[in-house]
Structures are given as structure tokens and as C-alpha cells.
């Protein structure tokens, strides 16, 4: 290490922090930040959120027993300090790598990780479940759920708080309020929390009122005692609404999230409450590292970077699919005033920042609320607008019912721009976008497309804007493929594109797998096999006419997709050919029916048989064996 870790070296197991002298806490916090900056700069990861919760995490570990108590981190990307304090420093040398330590809590990784998380707004529900289970089992441990103010915009969090209000035993909800999710927070909850943060010294005001009342002869003390006994408490007098207490939750705060002694006292006080209690903690995202403090969104999830400047070490030289989407959206919006854009707290990640700047009245960030985003879009579409809902594949699955019931059942013209479709890499199981073909394929009225390259994405978007009905386009993370520019047949509903027309073996590749299929074809050609290559374009509707034609003059059909095999594109193709009595053999190349761990995209494809080498070997074995 480039710096001295006098205090950090004392932390090798869960609860080791309790042996430190309180005077050592500030130095430990400093060393943790230096450690995190060094490791994340070398491996990538979530930095700003972790820098912001160092003292908060230390206080939780000091106030509670992490061998007995249960701590749930909402989303979980801010659990790095928790991992350090539970003896996992060495794991940061393999952070988010294949076979290495996850960037999120994992129950199999350490007993102190009480619940696997990766998506937002889940911690209160999970924590409530653990608290009720504790009571039913006759245990006495504490349960603490840490949720950010961004995650609190998700409806599931409110459902859980509503349910938690019925609890008559202790359950602690820590609201980590840093005014950010990935992008700055929006909406009523953000404004409400802002009003609490910026209230004119509420605590001082309360104390001044009590002091003044106590000075009233004879009646002063009685008035103070009565106010304190009042159910709604004196807070009701000075903080409008007191949303949490009105819901039935005891509210403590706001508390300085970087003051360890104050945090510990507050948590111990919260632990004595018989019921659900919310501790409102104010933290600064990116604290201790100037570039992250200035640009918390950029350092939410970062690749390797130079510590001194904060600048990324690998510079993007080519446009990615998100850039293409952003450019087409802006151009199309200039021509069509009915086009509007919706994001769920991912303005930058989905490429809508420029759209927001140019067309602010037609841009809608609904917060971390994917279900609401989709139904909101259906309302816009019902009035004749063309809403484009830009959401990552892994997060769109949260809105399955809304896609089915509110959009497709009414056959409304909503465009789904599904970013990060396929394997996304180092964020692991909770973030891989490998299920969207399967879960969308089942829904009537929905058209599902995927482009072979950046030009086809642009063409598909324009086709989707003109189409009159529900339509989705999935595209992967990373640099946009710029090969096959010479192939640009106009998009027609349900029609594939024949790239190379031969006989014997037909490769039918979908979207992101076209570059791999090109490599597979080249290898097969070197082995003197005749090989047709089809750009499927549409998973729904299938190009049935082409499939029947391929079955007539080919011996083997190979479907290739970056999605789980169950319910995917290949299964739909196989089912159609079976139902129509075709005798052609089909090999379905897809991801296996299990969750895909973390690692680089290339490594994960190789491990799961989705790389060119694996596909060629499989084709040769099965083709020869026919």
C-alpha cells in the first residue's frame, strides 16, 4: 500500500472495530477512504456512494453486533466499508472480477451480509421480514435496514413502511440522505426531505420553545410535560406533515452522518423503540475525495481512473449504443413534437441528459419508480403522445405487470428503449440484462427488436417512433458495433435480413450476437462449410416465412442470442419449426438457465458457451453427428 494503515490493520474480523479507542475513529475513517480510493481507482466500482457512508457504517458496526444483528443495505453498492469492517480487505484486490469479491452484499460471501441486494427500494421489505421472523423464532437480535433518499422514491419502500407501522417490536430504518440516487433526486419525497434538512435549526427552535415555556410561572412545566406526552410530539408544530410519524413510524433526526459519536448515541436510542423507527442521517456523497464530491454522478460507478486528477485512464474513442440512442432521440424530437422521454432516475446512464437540456418540458424523470414510469407512459400514449421509456433491462423487469396490463393490453404506442441488454459484466447477477427476451416474448401486441450495429439501432428507433403500438428495442452496453455498414436493408415489421445466403448451416443471430456470428461463419468457411448468416432483427413477430425457407435447403439451423435459453428467441424458433412439421435440426445457443456471476463480458461469454470458439466446437460436433 502507498499509505500507512495503522488503524485499518487492526480490522481483520467482524466486530474488531469495537476494540479501538474512540480517539482512533477519525483516523480509521481517513484510512478507509484512502483504501477505497486506491482500490476502486485500480479495479473500478462504486466510489462516491461508499465514500459518503464511511462514518455511518462505522457507527452501525459500533452500535450493533454484526455477528448477531442483521444489517440490510438497499441496492448494496455502498457496502464496501461494511465489507472492510467484516474482514474482507484482501477481497478488494479482486473486486467485481470473475471469481472475486462482489461489489454487492452476498450471503454466501460472509455471514454479516444478511440479505443479497442489487435493486433499489427493497431493504425495508426484507428487513421487516427478518424482524417478523426474529420474533416468531423467539430471537432478540436487532434488524437494521439502510435505505437512500433516492431509493425512497420507489413505491415498494412506502408499501413496506406502511406495513412496518403495525410492528410492535424494534425495527430500525436508517435513511441515508445524500440528495442523490445516481442523478440528483426528483419529486415530492426529495422536496420533503429537503425541507427537513433546511429547516431553520429545528432542534434549536424546539429547545428555545421548551426553555421559554418552562420559564412561565406555575404552568410552564406542566405545558412542557403535556406537549411531550402528545402523540404527534412537538415536531408536528414545526415540521409540516411529519410524513413518517403520520405513517406510524417513530422519527429521529436529522443527524449528521459524519459524526460517529452522535450516530452511535442515536442508533442506541433507536434500538430501544418498541416499533419501527426511522433514523434520518445526512451524508455527503463522495466525501473526502474532491473529484467525487464535485461529480458524484460520474463517480457513482466508475472504471479505473487516475487518483490525482480523477480522470478515467481508458478514454472512449467510439460511440456506444447509448450515445446512438441519445443522438437519434434529439434529432427525432426536433421533427416530432409528440415525442417525449421518460427515465427512472437514470438520466445520464440512459443517454437522456442532452434531451433534457434541449426539451425540458418533454423530459420526465420519475425517480426510482419503474412501474410508475411505464404506466405514466401509457397515460401519455393514450392522449396521443409518443413516450420513449429508457430503462436498463434488469430494471425494466420490475415493471412487467405494467407493460402487460397498462401498455400492451390497450395496444398503446409506447417505445421501450432497453439499455444494458445482455451480459453487462462486473456488477454481477443482479444487473445482467439476460431475461428481457423471455419475459417480453410472452406479452401479446408487443414487438421486440434488436439491432446488429449502430446504424441499425438508429433505423429501428425511427421505425419504432412511426409504429402504432407497443414496441421494444434491446441493445447492449459498450461500444456500438460499426461493421456491416454495407448491409442496410430498410426495416420491415417481422422481417429478418439475409447477410449471406448459402446452404448446409444457417446461423440465425439476434442483435448483439451478430459480431460473434460473423466470426463463427468465418471459422466455418475456413473449414469449407457452406454457411448462411441471418440478422434476425425481430424476436417478435418471428419471420416465419424465412424460417420455412431455411428449413427447406439447410441441414442445421443455429440460433444465437444473449439471453437465457428458457423462453428465449431460440425456443420460439424451435417451437415454430416443430409445430409446422419441419425436420431441420436446431441448435439453440443461449445462456444457461441460471444466474450469471460477475466478470468481464468476454470472460462470462466464454464461461457460458457464448463465445465464437465454443459455438464453433458445438456446431462441428453436432453437425458431424447428424
Structure explained in plain terms:
This protein is of the alpha/beta class. 38% of the residues lie in helices and 15% in strands. The protein contains 25 helices and 17 strands. A 7-stranded mixed sheet has the order 7-6-8-9-11-10-15, with helices on both faces. The protein has a 5-stranded parallel sheet with strand order 1-2-3-5-4, sandwiched between helices. Helix 12 (260-270) links the parallel strand 4 and strand 5. Helix 3 packs across helix 12, helix 16 (370-382) runs parallel beside helix 18 (400-408) and helix 21 crosses helix 25. The longest helix has 19 residues, at 25-43. The radius of gyration is 27 Å and the shape is globular. The termini are far apart. Residues 229-238 have low confidence and may be disordered.
Instruction: Give the assembly state of these chains.
Output: single chain
The largest sheet, given as strand count, sense and whether it forms a barrel, is: 7 strands, mixed
Q: What Rg is obtained from the alpha carbons, in whole angstroms?
A: 27 Å
Mean pLDDT: 91
Percent range of helical residues: 25-40%
How far apart are the termini?
A: 58 Å
Shape: globular
Strand content: 15-25%
Widest sheet, order of strands: 7-6-8-9-11-10-15
Structural class label: alpha/beta
Question: In total, how many beta strands?
Answer: 17
Amino acid at each position: 500500500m502507498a499509505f500507512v494503515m495503522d488503524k485499518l490493520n487492526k480490522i481483520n474480523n467482524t466486530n474488531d472495530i469495537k476494540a479501538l479507542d474512540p480517539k482512533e475513529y477519525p483516523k480509521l475513517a481517513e484510512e478507509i477512504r484512502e483504501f477505497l480510493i486506491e482500490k476502486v481507482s485500480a479495479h473500478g466500482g462504486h466510489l462516491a456512494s461508499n465514500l459518503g457512508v464511511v462514518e455511518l457504517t462505522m457507527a452501525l458496526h459500533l452500535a450493533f453486533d454484526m455477528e448477531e444483528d442483521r444489517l440490510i443495505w438497499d441496492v448494496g453498492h455502498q457496502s464496501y466499508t461494511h465489507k472492510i469492517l467484516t474482514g474482507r480487505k484482501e477481497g478488494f484486490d479482486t473486486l467485481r472480477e470473475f471469481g472475486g469479491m462482489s461489489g454487492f452484499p452476498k450471503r454466501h460471501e460472509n455471514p454479516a451480509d444478511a440479505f443479497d441486494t442489487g435493486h433499489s427500494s427493497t431493504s425495508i421489505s426484507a428487513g421487516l421480514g427478518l424482524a417478523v421472523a426474529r420474533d416468531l423464532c423467539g430471537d432478540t437480535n436487532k434488524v437494521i435496514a439502510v435505505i437512500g433518499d433516492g431509493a425512497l422514491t420507489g413505491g415498494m419502500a412506502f408499501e413496506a413502511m406502511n406495513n412496518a407501522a403495525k410492528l410492535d417490536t424494534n425495527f430500525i430504518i436508517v435513511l441515508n440522505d445524500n440528495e442523490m440516487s445516481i442523478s440528483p433526486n426528483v419529486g415530492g419525497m426529495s422536496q420533503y426531505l429537503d425541507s427537513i434538512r433546511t429547516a431553520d435549526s429545528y432542534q434549536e427552535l424546539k429547545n428555545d420553545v421548551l426553555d421559554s415555556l418552562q420559564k412561565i410561572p406555575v404552568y410552564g412545566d406542566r405545558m412542557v410535560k403535556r406537549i411531550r406526552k402528545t402523540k404527534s410530539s412537538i415536531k408536528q408544530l414545526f415540521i409540516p406533515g411529519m410524513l413518517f410519524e403520520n405513517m406510524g413510524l417513530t422519527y429521529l433526526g436529522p443527524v449528521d452522518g459524519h459524526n460517529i459519536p452522535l450516530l452511535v448515541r442515536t442508533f442506541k436510542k433507536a434500538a430501544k423503540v418498541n416499533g419501527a423507527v426511522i433514523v434520518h442521517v445526512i451524508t455527503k456523497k463522495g466525501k473526502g475525495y474532491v473529484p467525487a464530491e464535485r461529480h458524484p454522478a460520474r463517480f457513482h460507478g466508475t472504471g479505473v481512473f487516475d487518483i490525482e486528477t480523477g480522470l478515467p485512464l481508458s478514454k472512449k474513442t467510439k460511440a456506444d449504443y447509448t450515445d446512438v440512442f441519445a443522438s437519434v432521440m434529439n434529432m427525432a424530437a426536433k421533427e416530432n413534437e409528440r415525442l417525449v422521454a421518460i427515465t427512472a432516475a437514470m438520466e445520464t446512464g440512459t443517454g437522456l441528459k442532452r434531451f433534457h437540456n434541449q426539451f425540458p418540458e418533454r423530459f420526465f424523470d420519475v425517480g426510482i419508480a419503474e412501474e410508475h414510469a411505464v404506466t405514466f407512459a401509457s397515460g401519455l400514449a393514450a392522449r396521443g403522445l409518443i413516450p420513449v421509456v429508457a430503462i436498463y433491462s434488469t430494471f425494466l423487469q420490475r415493471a412487467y405487470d405494467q407493460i402487460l396490463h397498462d401498455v400492451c393490453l390497450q395496444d398503446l404506442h409506447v417505445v421501450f428503449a432497453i439499455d444494458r441488454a445482455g451480459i453487462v459484466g462486473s456488477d454481477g447477477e443482479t444487473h445482467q440484462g439476460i431475461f428481457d427476451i423471455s419475459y417480453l416474448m410472452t406479452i401479446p401486441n408487443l414487438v421486440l427488436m434488436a439491432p446488429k450495429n449502430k446504424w441499425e439501432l438508429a433505423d429501428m428507433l425511427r421505425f419504432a417512433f412511426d409504429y402504432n403500438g407497443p414496441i421494444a428495442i434491446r441493445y447492449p452496453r459498450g461500444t456500438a458495433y460499426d461493421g456491416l455498414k454495407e448491409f442496410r436493408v430498410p426495416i420491415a415489421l417481422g422481417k429478418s435480413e439475409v447477410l449471406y445466403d448459402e446452404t448446409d448451416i444457417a446461423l440465425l443471430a439476434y442483435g448483439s450476437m451478430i459480431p460473434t456470428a460473423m466470426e463463427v461463419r468465418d471459422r466455418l468457411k475456413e473449414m469449407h462449410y457452406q454457411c448462411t448468416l441471418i440478422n434476425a432483427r425481430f424476436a417478435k413477430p418471428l419471420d416465419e416465412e424465412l424460417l420455412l425457407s431455411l428449413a427447406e435447403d439447410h441441414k442445421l439451423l443455429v440460433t444465437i442470442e444473449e439471453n437465457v435459453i428458457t423462453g428465449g428467441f431460440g425456443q420460439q424458433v424451435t417451437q415454430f419449426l416443430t409445430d409446422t412439421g419441419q425436420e431441420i435440426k436446431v441448435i439453440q445457443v443461449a445462456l444457461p438457465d441460471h444466474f450469471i456471476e460477475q466478470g468481464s463480458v468476454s470472460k462470462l461469454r466464454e464461461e457460458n458457451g457464448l463465445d465464437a470458439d465454443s459455438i464453433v466446437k458445438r456446431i462441428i460436433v453436432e453437425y458431424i453427428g447428424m
